[in-house]
Structure formats: structure tokens, C-alpha cells
């Protein structure tokens, strides 16, 4: 009768134990392997902290971008906007903006002072973007073109390649970006700013004169036909015009936009009155010509800095740069001073870099414009800049205190016999050490890179832009509601909208 009943649990386990132990062993091993794999993956190389250093070479970064991310045949059409003034499209966009901003105001107690900033990047036809980048890349190694004053054309483009570094960071997939104070949005009504990705410097230097002017006119029409431009008259649009010669033929039509500039040049040699201002525009640093002197380099070069004052560059310049010739006359041949005529190419770069790393102070006089890449070369070389440029405006001065890293000297004082050298020789070793220590801390703010780094120049651009948001919204909305007969008390250009068909329609719609 016993055979009719199932075996007891103990009997069953004893009879099945080898098989059961094998199954439990396999399951346990799989679980341990899974947990180890998960742990290894989660702690290996998160996208926010890449193990490889950022790329700071414009050429290498550009090659990587063009070969890996450049689109194929798909090309945004030139017919993406209506050539006629489409008032209804502007009104629709304005209604969407109102709805979006109202929701933000109710949801976020810190709006609109909160970060991140939201930027809409226009997808312009490739002739304004990728085609120009390819033109630069394909001609870089096969040209010896010089400007009229002897500067290498392609090196000038590198110095002013601000448009590339900002654009590449904005269009990089969010998972690969390190900057979190700015995000790209896909809906125009969500945007705080509109970024115009047109390479004005490349087109100026590498296209024939008439071809360049024609492309400028096409870009102007493309942008100003956009409903978002018409709504704000360009006040919330960002345009890089970092070389003072670029976009010159048409930029008066875009003077309301936020320009990214190397300086202001209030002398009127490069920008017409009313085109540029610190309230509207932003000063950005040049891309340095020399390599960064890192912590080890700074330590190694400490004992080698035996030159009191160093300058290498063009000794004769135009406009405000005429101070150079006077400084050369005063300083050349003095003990502890090296003044050299600059030369183009790798040899010239190496000589400038070597000289700066062996010097305590580096002379930074005005060039054809108040600014010069030499200032930023000195900063990243650990050489204390001596700035002789009365009209100079500096990048990110709302964030950075340049008194900690540079000496500012008026032109009239600098050319007095013996005055400048006496000043430098009487600066204490303790102050020199402190300023050089500050240079080491400040260098990171002037190194463009991909991916863009926190506290790098790309990051500081958006920190500075955050301070402009409310004022831009104020003038945009005011221009849309002010009626013809009202007396304008502001000094901005907002009254222009009142005489336009668009301004009249929107004023009635919003009143």
C-alpha cells in the first residue's frame, strides 16, 4: 500500500539533491554575474564624465564633426519661409509664446530668472553652415593665402571660430553634453533665444567678394523672413560676427540682434553708431594661438621666466593699433625687454609660445581693433598681460575680474620715457606670484573645447546671456503694444515697430 502514496518531502529532496543543487548553482552564478556586470557598467564611464580629455584643437574637432556628424544629402530648403510678411504666422507664434510663458510663470516661482536657458537653433540651408565648414577644411592644407596686412587667412578664421564651438555644442545630443545651463528646444514658442548658425568669417575670407556679399544678402533674407524674427525684430536672436570685417555689408539690417563680438571699438572704425552696445551684445574671447600651459608647465617654467617684458607680433598696425609703433620706439633695446616682429606659420607660433613662457609680463597693445588674440595667448601661457588699449572691452567682465590677472596702462602713460619699465620693475614678487596663480585659475575660461566644459567660454556665454532675458522680453512686448500716438520714453529702437504693418496689427490684437 505504501507505493500508492507520494514520497515524503525529505525522501524527495534526497533523491533529487544532485539535480537541485546544480540548478541552484547555475541560478546563483547567473545572479552574481548580472549584479557584477550591472555594477561595472554603472560605475565605468558615465556619459557626463568622459574619460578622454576634451578636444581643444579646432582642426581636429572640425574633422571629427564633419566626418562623423555631417548630414548626407538632406538639406533644409530655402523655401521654409514665406517671402511676404506673414502677419498671421507672427500672431500665431505670439499666442503660443504667451501660452508657454504663462504656464512657466505659474509652474516655476523663479521664472524667468531660472536656468537652463532655452535656445532654438535654426536649421538653415547647408550653404550657410556645413558647406562653409567643408570649404575651410578642404582648403586649409593647400593654401598660403594672406590678408592685406600679412595675416594667414585660415589662422584668422581659427582665431574667430566662436561660431563653430557654440553651434557644435548646441546641436550635440543632450546625452553627450556637459553644459546644463542651456538646452536646445525644438518648439519656437519655448525659446528664450534663437541661434543663427551662419559662418560669417569663413564666408568673408574664403569666398570671392561678390559671392560673399550675395550669400550675406541671402542669409539676411532667410533670417528676417522668419516669424520669430518679425515678432521681436531680432532682439532675441544671436548672431556671431566675431571678426570685425565679417557681415559688414548687411549687418545694419540686423542691428537689433545680439552680436557676439571681439570688442566694441567705440572709435567708430569698425561699427557704426547704434550698432553695438554692452547692453545688447556680448564680448567673446579669441581662440588662443598658443597651447595651454597647464599646471606642470607653469611649475616647470617658473624658474625660466627671466624676461621682464615680451612682445611678438606685427609692429605696425592701423587705426588704434598705431600705439604699437610708439611703444616699440620706447621699449626696443631696453634691458629685460624682447620686442620681435611676428611671423606666420608654425615657426611663428612656436616662437611666440616659447617667449611667453619665459617672460613675467607680456605686452598687449591694441591691434587694428582694440582687442587682440595676444591677450588670451598671454593668459593661457601664464604671462601677466600688460594691456595698453584705451578702448578695450573684455569678455565676461560681469563674471571675471581682470584686475586680478592683468595690468591696465593708459596709452599716454605707456609711451612716456621710462614710465612703463619703472612700473613693472617696482611690482613686488608677492604680487607677481599672486597674479600668476590667478592666471592658472582663469585659463579654463578661455579654452574652447568639444565637449564644451563647465566654466569654459561656451558656459560663460550662457551665464552672461541669462542676464539679458528679462530686458529682451520687456522691449519685445513693449514694441508690440505701443501705439502710434504714444510718447516713447525709452532710448531703444522699439518705436520703429509702430510704423509697420506688423506693429499696427499686433498692437490692435494685443490691446
Automatic annotation (TrEMBL):
GO molecular function, one term: glycosyltransferase activity
Membrane topology: Single-pass type II membrane protein
Cellular compartment(s): Golgi apparatus membrane
Residue ranges of domain Exostosin GT47 in the record: 116-422
Keywords noted in UniProt: Glycosyltransferase, Golgi apparatus, Membrane, Signal-anchor, Transferase, Transmembrane, Transmembrane helix
Domain of life: Eukaryota
InterPro entries named in the record: Exostosin (IPR004263), Exostosin_GT47 (IPR040911)
TM segment ranges: 20-38
Pfam families: Exostosin_GT47 (PF03016)
A Gene Ontology cellular-component term: Golgi membrane
PANTHER family: EXOSTOSIN FAMILY PROTEIN (PTHR11062:SF184), EXOSTOSIN HEPARAN SULFATE GLYCOSYLTRANSFERASE -RELATED (PTHR11062)
Record family assignment: Belongs to the glycosyltransferase 47 family.
Name listed for the protein in its UniProt record: Exostosin GT47 domain-containing protein
